């Protein structure tokens, strides 16, 4: 009886430790130089695609016209920040990744004027602020 009580008391602690280590590994991967470089390249590619002629038959998701106009400078600033030597906050990296992969987001769907610029500026701000929720 005592063994089962001890066993149930230590199991949650062990699980919590594994979760914390898994989360720390995920965050380390998220802020790694490799991930930062890849996301910076993706942002630069998006800006190039926004300014390129559009082909009617392609599997590539078209970028909104705002990415080529008002969002261009801030997207390139974001890429430059990712390539820089200063550390980045995980939440900022999550916001950059979400901006790039959300097919219904402001990078791919033209919405309100300045929506893409605002999302990119929030991500840029969050890169420098730990615990930022945007």
Q: What is the CA–CA distance across the termini?
A: 50 Å
Poorly predicted tracts of residues? 1-8
Proportion of β residues? under 5%
Counting copies of identical and different chains, the oligomeric state is single chain
Sheet with most strands: none
Order of helices and strands: HHHHHH
SS summary, helix count? 6
Our count of domains comes out at: 2
Please state the overall shape, judged from the principal axes of the Cα atoms: elongated
Characterization of this structure:
With 134 residues, this protein is an all-alpha fold. It folds into 2 domains: 1-25; 31-127, no CATH class. The protein is built from 6 helices and no strands. The chain has helices at 2-30, 33-51, 65-68, 72-83, 90-101, 115-127. The model is unreliable at 1-8 (pLDDT under 50).
